[in-house]
Specification:
284 residues; mainly alpha; 14 helices; globular
Length: 284
């Protein structure tokens, strides 16, 4: 076997302050997997890492969407769309992770499920922030986080702030498009009903792409994110169904039935509605 010699320029006089392990804080990261089963069940490590990695990807999603929101506030759609392109790729990573967890069989999972207690992915504060910044606001879910003051404060800010889509509608208004004032000046804690006037604005964008190309690109980027989220929700539901059937969830939810209801929630319903409107006049 050929042996590769160590190049003389490679740094070897390293300390823990400036090496790879130190920069990534791998000592902390790789010591954060602590199975509770006794003796440790082999497959609990898979379950822990799967969810820890998902939380890291969700952290990056929140970071990238936050960047996109700031660009939209500055009316800079091109870099916002770049952020949203990265969001789509991160969503693909989250989606593909389910394939790994799908290798966990019902009998294997049943052997360590009891160690979770009341813990459930439903309680993920980061996931709830992600839903809030994408527009699925819910005051009722805030009660779950009352015992975590720091997370509660972050959730409260996300609940009260305009979502990604609402920031986009504000941008359209600043460009002189006829977004109604009641859509822009309201309590952002509440989920807004579909508005025909907003659908009309979106139809104008789609039917005159050359005049509104950047807005058109942004609409499609938002639609991609919404679809990817639905794909993720569906695979989540099917993975849970495959592993625990129709048992109740560890957090007290109805399990699969609870996850199925989430599939009826669309983040940007007006972007779906406009697809029905486009070209409708030609069919009459």
């Amino acid at each position: 076997m050929n042996e590769r010699e160590l190049e003389h320029t490679i740094h070897t006089d390293l300390s823990r302050d400036d090496d790879y392990t130190g920069y990534l804080q791998l000592d902390r990261l790789l010591s954060a997997q602590a199975p509770l089963s006794d003796p440790p069940h082999h497959d609990e490590m898979l379950f822990i890492i799967q969810h820890q990695v998902a939380e890291l990807w969700i952290k990056l999603l929140i970071h990238e969407i936050g960047g996109a929101i700031q660009h939209i506030r500055d009316d800079r759609l091109a870099p916002a769309v770049k952020n949203l392109a990265r969001v789509r790729h991160i969503q693909n990573q989250l989606y593909n992770q389910w394939k790994v967890l799908d290798t966990l069989t019902p009998s294997e999972y049943a052997e360590f499920r009891h160690v979770f207690g009341k813990a459930s992915g439903f309680q993920s504060a980061q996931y709830r922030i992600l839903e809030f910044i994408l527009g699925n606001k819910s005051r009722a879910t805030m009660r779950v986080y009352e015992h975590q003051p720091d997370w509660y404060a972050r959730l409260q800010r996300a609940l009260e702030s305009p979502s990604l889509y609402e920031e986009f509608l504000m941008h359209l208004a600043r460009q002189g498009m006829a977004v109604p004032e009641h859509v822009l000046d309201r309590d952002f804690c509440e989920v807004r009903d579909e508005d025909p006037a907003v659908v009309g604005v979106l139809r104008e964008i789609y039917e005159d792409r050359s005049a509104h190309w950047q807005q058109y690109e942004a609409c499609e980027a938002l639609m991609d994110i919404s679809n990817n989220f639905q794909f993720w929700r569906f695979h989540h539901m099917k993975t849970v169904e495959r592993i625990i059937g129709h048992k109740r969830g560890t957090g007290g939810s109805s399990g699969v039935m609870f996850l199925k209801k989430a599939l009826d929630i669309e983040f940007f319903p007006e972007l779906l509605k406009v697809r029905t409107e486009i070209g409708a006049d030609e069919e009459d």
